[in-house]
């Protein structure tokens, strides 16, 4: 485990020269994204952050931006509206950022929720949580790679479930879980996590100059568990289960492990420390190992203690059984937007 003291010491070294100069936060309007933006801005460094969010969240995000400007007047926060569950809008917003910026140092991805309710699809025919947590995130990476590649130490951090992949998590015959009976909360969550890791590992292999992190935040009480149930029957057994069991457990674990208060600084560390691949704020502790088990750059599966795991057994099976199919299918879904 990386101690919180080590996290604070590393983040204290962030300044104009070492902090990401230009960042794109997709999901920085709430939760872990917002906590990480707050920690980044609090460094006092001169930086620009694109806060990408949906229209419905603009008003409260503007208040958040005022707060950030008061903390750090040298932080240029650019509100950037987009409905990122839609791949067409993801493409549009990436084009906007690419016309404004020659380089992006950090792409930080958190949009998504636990798909606990009934299956809901976007107008593009994708399950909403899968689009947010996998397809849209991979599209952001693909479309911003040209500007990420221009940065000195570019990094992509995607917050979901890195390290939680299981050998049996991917149904290669139904990658979008469209067949009757296949879409359940557990199957969807585990499948999206594994698909995302496989695609990120592939991208990391193809882009050795970019550091990739797939983070599992543990249990942070952001209200995320309720999002999948929005607009659905508040008296369903799932709603009662979340209210009576899941949310109290999340709150308790968050309190006991300090993950609520530490989440922002820990994700800032994951976004900037050389512990992951050697580029970034110097790190004298044990170097993290990538998903291939090597202490060198690539994809890092990082947990809430900032430990890395190659998740060897599960990843070995998933590479053999699912990698090509997941990659080909993801390419097929994204092709109209590339
Ligand atoms: N919190 C945890 O303990 C935990 C644990 C494991 C995994 N995760 C996963 O990690 C990621 C980040 O978690 P979090 O707790 O920070 O999440 P969060 O605060 O609940 O939400 C993160 C972002 O997702 C956006 N979002 C949610 N539904 C959306 C939709 N339908 N369309 C567009 N944007 C939408 C939110 O935008 P708005 O601000 O506009 O609502 C917000 O910016 C999520 O994928 C979550 O499932 C979280």
UniProtKB/TrEMBL annotation:
UniProt KW Chaperone keyword: no
Gene3D superfamilies hit by this protein: NAD(P)-binding Rossmann-like Domain
Membrane-spanning segments: none
- InterPro entries per UniProt: NAD(P)-bd_dom_sf (IPR036291), SDR_fam (IPR002347), Sec_Metab_Biosynth_Oxidored (IPR052228)
- Write the record's keywords in alphabetical order, separated by commas: Oxidoreductase
Q: Does the keyword rRNA-binding apply?
A: no
- Superkingdom in the source lineage: Eukaryota
- Name of the protein in question: Uu.00g005760.m01.CDS01
């Amino acid at each position: 485990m990386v101690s919180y003291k080590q996290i604070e010491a590393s983040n204290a070294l962030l300044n104009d020269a070492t902090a990401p100069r230009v960042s794109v936060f997709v999901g920085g309007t709430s939760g872990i994204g917002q906590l990480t933006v707050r920690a980044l801005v609090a460094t006092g460094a001169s930086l620009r952050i694109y806060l990408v969010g949906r229209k419905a969240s603009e008003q409260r995000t503007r208040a958040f931006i005022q707060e950030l400007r008061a903390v750090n007047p040298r932080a240029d926060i650019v509100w950037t509206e987009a409905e990122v569950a839609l791949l067409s809008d993801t493409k549009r917003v990436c084009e906007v950022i690419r016309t404004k910026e020659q380089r992006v140092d950090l792409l930080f991805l958190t949009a998504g929720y636990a798909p606990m309710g009934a299956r809901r699809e976007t107008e593009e025919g994708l399950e909403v949580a899968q689009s947010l947590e996998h397809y849209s995130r991979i599209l952001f990476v693909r479309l911003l790679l040209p500007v990420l590649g221009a940065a000195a130490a570019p990094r992509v951090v995607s917050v979901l479930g890195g390290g939680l992949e299981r050998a049996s998590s991917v149904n290669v015959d139904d990658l979008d879980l469209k067949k009757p009976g296949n879409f359940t909360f557990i199957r969807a969550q585990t499948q999206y996590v594994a698909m995302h890791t496989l695609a990120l590992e592939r991208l990391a292999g193809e882009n050795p100059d970019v550091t990739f992190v797939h983070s599992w935040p543990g249990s942070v009480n952001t209200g995320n568990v309720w999002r999948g149930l929005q607009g659905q029957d508040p008296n369903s057994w799932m709603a009662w289960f979340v209210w009576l069991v899941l949310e109290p457990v999340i709150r308790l674990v968050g309190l006991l492990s300090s993950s609520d208060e530490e989440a922002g600084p820990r994700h800032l560390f994951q976004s900037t420390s050389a512990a992951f691949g050697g580029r970034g704020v110097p790190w004298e502790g044990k170097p993290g190992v990538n998903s291939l088990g090597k202490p060198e750059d690539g994809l890092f599966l990082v947990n809430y203690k900032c430990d890395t795991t190659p998740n060897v057994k599960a990843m070995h099976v998933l590479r053999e059984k699912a990698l090509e199919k997941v990659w080909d299918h993801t390419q097929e879904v994204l092709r109209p937007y590339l």
